[in-house]
Amino acid sequence: MRERWEIDATLRREMVFFEARDLDTCVIRQTVGTHIERRMADAGEDAAARALAMNLSLCRQGFAFGVRRGVLVLHRYVAPWESFEACMTAVRDFLVVSERIKRAVIPS
Predict the structure, then answer these.
(1) Contact 48, 31 (CB under 8 A)
(2) Nearest 5°: CA angle at 70, between 69 and 75?
(3) Beta partners for 64?
(4) Are 76 and 38 in contact (CB under 8 A)?
(5) pLDDT tens per residue across span 64-97
(6) Residue 11 and residue 74: Cα distance in Å, rounded?
(7) Which SS3 state, helix, strand or coil, does residue 80 take?
(8) Does the pLDDT of residue 1 top 60, yes or no?
(9) How many CB atoms lie within 10 A of CB 7?
(10) Residue 67 to residue 73: CA distance in whole angstroms
(11) Based on C-alpha coordinates, what's the Rg of the chain?
């Protein structure tokens, strides 16, 4: 992955961990379906409040914010009956859309 996408990835059990360009930790977990998440450690309380307020509109797109261990996390779930290609497309789309969502929640 380092050569192709310029990212380091770690595989641990059924999870793949890697860093986004802005150093957020991303996780892809394959258990029942595919769970994709982006952990935004640099989000403060104001950003978390804005993010959680976006959940209703994000839910329509298959995304949802939550807080885990004090860290803001953006989630997406891909159903287990989706094809491998659909799953990979969902991962790619998640990374693109999550960057846009982060910019809206945590302005530079």
Answers:
(1) no
(2) 75
(3) 75
(4) no
(5) 998 888 889 999 999 999 998 998 898 888 888 8
(6) 20
(7) coil
(8) no
(9) 12
(10) 6
(11) 14
